[in-house]
């Protein structure tokens, strides 16, 4: 199997356009309250979300596509493959999105119209057309772990030899229905996104996009590209349990983490997966999920759980749905490049049931190896490693 | 050619308004959903709250696995699902949005609220069949069902599972949707197993296939240089699935009347295309055609092997090399 390296990253969050804006926010760790939705039909009690600045985004057929184009443009530029230049190998595109361009359809209805015939899940195709990318073009919609699976699919394409160059990530924008359904399920926090806080009441969505340029190590070396990081193994699993609730024993999210760490052996014996410098958890702020993930981390990391810093990204940018895992991958790459684990956004009081280490001051990255977790409705779990390696 | 990406299909399940036999099934009848009786298909309790696309998926999966040999021997962690859908939750979401605009959030049904995320359509499928390996939901227009076979096969090759249910499921679009007349209803499920190089196909194999996807940027097809690039890409795609650029096979095209379809037809060579089938608004039709080529290949058309190509106006493109069981070799 071939090595997969990351040679470019791009991001858009409520803190601005560009991965530099994301890193700056990560270092400052502000308590940012969500924005009131500028929608007269925004769902009742919790009409808030972390909105991305839209004024500087490129034009596109929908908000999710606009976010994705901005992130993709940065990632390709970062990789030395600026938009408009022909890449040395066919460019493949894999995009994770929960809602696609549902928001565009909702805007039309709110204006009294009827949505047009355009497909809802058109973000990947829009990128493909815009970038003249003739490789595979895959739209993945595993809800809040969609872009984690997009990265896994992209890495598999490279590892089995089907592709050398893949633009992979995720994008999601405001959807009235998504916000409304979370509110109806009593899973929306009335204050802010505050994973692992004792008083958390649910999540708060955020708009965002993140794209990464992935290449086979050989392809990157052949064009003298300097890898930012290596995308390590990814673990996939499914709870096969409940539409929304995590399976309480965390058996399958533990299995996904162990696959990523190389602890998942055929005979179930398990082997050491090595040390971790940081974990970016799924951590959404929903009450049961944060407890189950904390317990799962303890099963995987054992006594080291309280030594390995968690970086709780959603406290900073909200829950960006299908973009969340790719944003975590960009954040992990930035942490690796800077060699620093930034401070977490302060909590009022950490939940004693969530026995994890959430440092509020920055610290050196002790081990150049980070684990990212991403979970979703339907029990769709994935975990993956971002690490330095021989190529990075 | 080698066996890379080749998957064995050991079970096929189809549920459509036009019947459940792959050779005659039709997903394109835009009739109300009264053709599907939940109680008789799935059971009296616990299914009615599921959106239609989830029900169709369950029913097709039951048909697909009923004759599969050795399924019980596959551990839950080695069983998985890859499900394609473009509009499986579209009508439900449109209704929810009307509720939010015209009423308020409290009028949303808590039972159907989780299905705002289209991947939840597969949740019950995974629970019912113990699919703990993974559950993927793919939404690429038109090709998501074929893509489920591609991604499922790749996952088998990568060692992520030993058995994958690859599926497409769709529900009727709402009455005010522009493409309601092209609505698809129903589901197709294939049971995929890996075929190791030089090894016999698994017991009960119906046939085998290899699927690859690519993209035709619509913005490229209007200028000569772009069209040549597209032609080269389509040729490469055909070579990737069949091992040769000009395979001596019946070619079946599922597509629309777009410029992309024209470019694909030109690249394939109009004389090479045996049949052109209109695409619908979803991703069921191409996977149903694959199922038909596996289960009921024409008797007077060579040895049953065929090439299936699907393309849509947005640029999504897939090719599938299909080989029914009467030619069970992987090479």
Features:
heterodimer; A: alpha+beta; Peroxisomal Thiolase, Chain A, domain 1; ten-stranded mixed beta sheet; two-stranded antiparallel sheet; 11 helices; 14 strands; 19% strand; globular; B: 331 residues; alpha/beta; 28% helix; PKS_Beta-ketoAc_synthase_dom (chain A); Ketosynthase family 3 (KS3) domain-containing protein (chain A); Beta-ketoacyl_synthase (chain A); transferase (chain A)
Structure explained in plain terms:
- The complex is a heterodimer of chains A (392) and B (331).
- Chain A is of the alpha+beta class.
- Helix content of chain A is 30%, strand content 19%.
- About 2% of the residues of chain A have low confidence.
- Chain B has two domains: 188 residues, Peroxisomal Thiolase, Chain A, domain 1; 117 residues, Peroxisomal Thiolase, Chain A, domain 1 (3-Layer(aba) Sandwich), CATH 3.40.47.
- With 331 residues, chain B is of the alpha/beta class.
- Chain B: This is Beta-ketoacyl synthase-like N-terminal domain-containing protein.
Q: Secondary structure elements and their pairing?
A:
The complex is a heterodimer of chains A (392) and B (331).
Chain A (H helix, E strand, L loop, with lengths): L3 E10 L2 E2 L1 H10 L6 E2 L11 E2 L13 H16 L13 E5 L5 H9 L12 H8 L6 E4 L5 H14 L5 E8 L3 H9 L23 E9 H6 L6 E10 L12 H11 L16 E3 L6 H15 L12 H4 L6 H15 L1 E2 L21 E2 L4 E6 L5 E8 L5
Parallel strand pairs in A: 5-6, 5-7, 10-13
Antiparallel strand pairs in A: 1-2, 1-8, 1-9, 3-4, 7-8, 9-14, 11-12, 13-14
Helix pairs in contact in A: 1-11, 2-4, 5-11, 8-9
Chain B lengths: L6 E9 L22 H4 L10 H14 L13 E6 L5 H13 L20 H7 L4 E5 L5 H14 L5 E8 L15 E9 L12 E9 L8 H19 L8 E5 L3 H10 L4 E6 L5 H12 L10 E6 L4 E9 L7
Parallel strand pairs in B: 2-3, 2-4, 7-8, 7-9
Antiparallel strand pairs in B: 1-5, 1-6, 4-5, 6-10, 9-10
Helix pairs in contact in B: 2-4, 6-7
Keywords (chain A): Transferase
Organism (chain A): Micromonospora parastrephiae
Family (chain A): Belongs to the thiolase-like superfamily. Beta-ketoacyl-ACP synthases family.
